[in-house]
Amino acid sequence: MIKRLIAASLLPLLVACENNTASSPLVGNWITESCERLEDANGQPLDYWMRGLYEFSSEGKIRRGMRSYEDANCQSQVLYEAPGSLGVAMTFEDLGEAFLQEGLDGRRLRVSLGSPPLALEVEGYYFIDDKRVCFSEAFRFHATGAGISGPSADAIDFGNCLRRGS
After folding, report:
1. pLDDT tens digits, residue range 27-71?
2. Residue 24: count of CB within 10 angstroms of its CB
3. What is the distance between the alpha carbons of residues 108 and 136, in angstroms, rounded to a whole number?
4. Using CB atoms within 10 A of its CB, is residue 20 exposed (0-12), middle (13-18) or buried (19+)?
């Protein structure tokens, strides 16, 4: 009987934690606003540009892909698209609403890079305005890669944004 009461009392807490990420406004497909030129292994520029593709799943996983173009505006025909997981495993947890130092209503976010026990974990913030999401300086979501910068990088970087994509 006591075990059932304890389990019943913990269930709402577990469901609330899970639902925060599952129902996060981040869930879905995003594409980088920036269009970045690709380089070869020697750092020489190539005649191809790319945008990064990011999928934030309701299970808390971040999958990174890319879309390559033949012009510097990333407007011409798509030459190559690689959705899915590129690079190191990334996960996220939406930690709920927060009032940002910029005077905006945003949300707290925890991102983990790598797999336990060697995972790096950083908390920061994000702000969604219409179909655009911008992240605090703690996170990097670029066309050529993603990563975390470290703690105490709370300011929103309006140059580090993604837009809703397909």
Report:
1. 999 999 988 988 888 989 988 889 989 999 999 999 988 888 888
2. 22
3. 10
4. middle
| Tokens linked to 59 | 């299970």
Of the candidates 136, 132, 130, 129, the one whose C-alpha atom is nearest the C-alpha of residue 150 is 136
Measured CA to CA, the distance from residue 128 to residue 26 in angstroms comes to 8
Give the global pTM.
Answer: 0.79
Q: What is the percentage of the chain residues whose pLDDT exceeds 90? A: 31
Instruction: Give CA torsion, residues 149, 153, 158, 159, to 10 deg.
Output: -30
